[in-house]
Amino acid sequence: MGTWGTGIYSNDTAGDVRDACKDIFAFYDVEEGNQKLFDFFKEVLQQEYIDNDYASFWYALSDWQWKHGMLTEYVKNKTVELLSGYAGIKEWEESGNVKDVIKRKKVLDSLKTQLEKPQPPVKKPKLSLVKPKHKPGDIIIFKATEYVDEWDSSWHIENFRPPFMFASKLISNSKSENINGYDAHGKYMAILCIDSQKESHSEYITGAFDEYSVYVWYNYLSEVKPSVEQLSFCGFLPMVDWILKDFNRGITDSISWIYQFTLMAESFKANSYIEFENKKCRNKNEVNRFHQLFANKKYSKDYFGGFDLCGMFNTAFEEKNRMDLLNLKIDDLLDPKVKNPDFLTPSEIDEAYKKYMNKLSD
After folding, report:
1. How far lies 86's CA from each of 8, 115, 232, 313, 321, in Å?
2. Which candidate, 280, 279, 303, places its Cα nearest to that of 290?
């Protein structure tokens, strides 16, 4: 039943309701917000039986609204009615854990007592929208530190994705899926902000957008700190964007070479893994240079999203290393004659993947 504790929000549905409330009631008034919420969770609310998920929806909504001074009479009455009969408790009883049943009932009793009290003043949540971290032309130079433990293994790639997605027999038949990669410890790297990308802030509301900086990765990895002038002669590294329709890696939707990506905000926080240059570097000419180079190539204009710097290093240098080992060139856009290897079609990749997995199980 997607439950990990006896608390009001220790349930998948309840947690989703809480997250939805934070967005919806920051954007809409209570009545309109309730309708939005009911519409979004209609599959749960329109089912013909009352189970733990159904009851958890109302428990979470009433608790959240009461604490924010937004509890309506309709939601309160509906919830108190469910609480009077410990709605949803049957699934707890069926689990056989008597202690959890007792704890859950105490939680529900406490909620019922709370709802009968006057609610606090209205406390409307604030909608916190993401703003671009950098401006186009910003060059971020950083260095991976010498600090080593299990969490920064991505700075020294040891396991590569199997090469079964490539159309090239040279690559697909290679044994380069388990090899040592580039060691970035103590070395400098750089990324360039080229644009910003808007994305819907939440699945629960419309008209609100987060905006993320879009970057490209310089083909630079050295113990020597680069100057902006040096970087202006560097190329940019591509990554493989492999989209899967499900979580078991069984059905491939699309695959392409991409050069642009967004990063999580945490990527730029000072930590023991990465040292950033304090001096701000900006060169808008670099943005134009990238777009001009990229315009001459027929690669996807999509972008990766939500990576951190360590993850992006792994992704950006993975295929570059594979090509180097096979004496092939990765296309960093500088040479008009160089083209990244072709991929199999999604259906061909699925077939090749099955064969690859069968080979592993033999």
Report:
1. 13, 15, 67, 52, 59
2. 303
CB 291 within 8 A of CB 194: yes
Q: What share of the chain is helix, strand, coil (3-state, %, to 5)?
A: 40, 20, 40
DSSP 8-state class, residue 264: -
- Using the Cα atoms of residue 251, residue 254, residue 259 and residue 265 in order, give the sign of their dihedral: negative
Report strand pairing: 239-244 vs 252-258.
Answer: antiparallel
Does this model's pTM top 0.85? My answer is no
Residue 187 Cα distances to 10, 66, 237, angstroms? 44, 53, 17
Q: How far is CA 192 from the centre of its chain?
A: 21
Say how far apart CA 45 and CA 144 lie, in whole Å. Answer: 50
Number of other residues whose CB lies within 10 A of the CB of residue 33: 22
pLDDT at 240 over 60: yes
In tens, the pLDDT along 17-55 reads: 999 999 999 999 999 999 999 999 999 999 989 999 999
Question: In the structure encoding, which two tokens stand for residue 313, read together?
Answer: 């290093």
- Condensed to tens digits (0 to 9), the pLDDT of residues 174-203 reads 765 655 567 788 889 999 999 999 999 998
CB 91 within 8 A of CB 51: yes
* Three-state SS letters, 155-169: HECCCCCCCCCECCH
pLDDT for residue 189: 92
Half-sphere CA count of 131, side-chain side, radius 13 A: 3
Of 63 and 321, more confident: 63
Q: What is the largest CA-CA distance in the chain?
A: 74
- Asked if residue 178 lies in contact with residue 348, where contact means CB atoms within 8 angstroms, the answer is no
Interval 199-237: pLDDT, tens: 999 988 888 999 999 999 999 999 999 999 999 999 999
Distance CA 38, CA 275 (A): 47
Q: How many other C-beta atoms lie within 10 A of the C-beta of residue 232?
A: 14
